[in-house]
Description:
The chain is of the alpha+beta class. It has helices at residues 31-37, 45-54, 131-147, 185-193, 196-218, 270-289; strands spanning 15-20, 24-30, 59-60, 69-70, 75-80, 83-89, 94-100, 124-128, 162-166, 179-183, 228-232, 235-240, 245-249, 260-265. Strands 9-10-14-13-12-11 form a six-stranded antiparallel sheet. A four-stranded antiparallel sheet has the order 1-2-6-5. β1 and β2 (24-30) form a beta hairpin.
Amino acid sequence: MSIKRITQESVPCWYELSWSNKSSIILRIHEDFLKNKGSIMPEEYFIKELARENKFTIFEGDFEGGNFGFDKSFVNQGLNNGFFEMKADVPSLRKESAQPCSLCNGTGKVFDYGVCSFCGGGGKSWCYEWEKAFALSASFTVFFTFSSSSNIQTSSNLKQLMTIQTITKRDAQGHGSSLRGEFSALLVNWLRTIEKAETKNLINFLKMATAATFIKMNGRKVDEDSFEVTLRNGRLIINCPGDACGVHPENWHEINDNGYEFNCHNTDNPMQQIALLAGLAALHDEARKAGI
């Protein structure tokens, strides 16, 4: 049996993402999919390698009876309209240390420039504790891998709007948190036809979700110009802080009534990856709200 591609035809939904303005991402998985696929066993080589590389302590993969992911990344919210909902709170990564700020030497001020921009005037140095971000990223990677080759028909009246693939590499020189996927024909045709005012509202919402998620993890004020969302003829770009970091179309060649593949550029760390996933989750929400 050939696997259906959502870029060309409508397929009943087996999973989707949702974003909460309380800085959380919800993974929704249809019960029919889980009945056919079952649990993800922690003994699988792929999972053991991720745990070893990142020094994770536990993996849970029984979606129906417990939580999901590495080190309790997702909390099971139960069954809702045929979907098991797994909620992941976005972690705060920036932590204050006991050492004085290296830029202002603990004074909170930098010469005549006023408040130190690095410590915010507190005089303490800061560091980033990446463990929870890597655990969440790796949990997404496991699920997206688990669900990537599905040809299981679910009873959902909703259609699959996108599929996503991620990687999680702690010691990569670059692109250690890459993501890619497909937007469905149904989603792209909606993006092509929404009105100008609706386009503006959509862009603002995706930008807000991406920025709020990134800033929650980063713990510092970030230039708003670093977050950019553009939409043209159904082609979507979402950018976040980094070296031209974002998701974008694999190509700009349009085929009538088809979806397309998307890819990323310079997504080097899980802070960027999770922020972009929040943007994609927000896109899910707005499409569902529009009846897609």
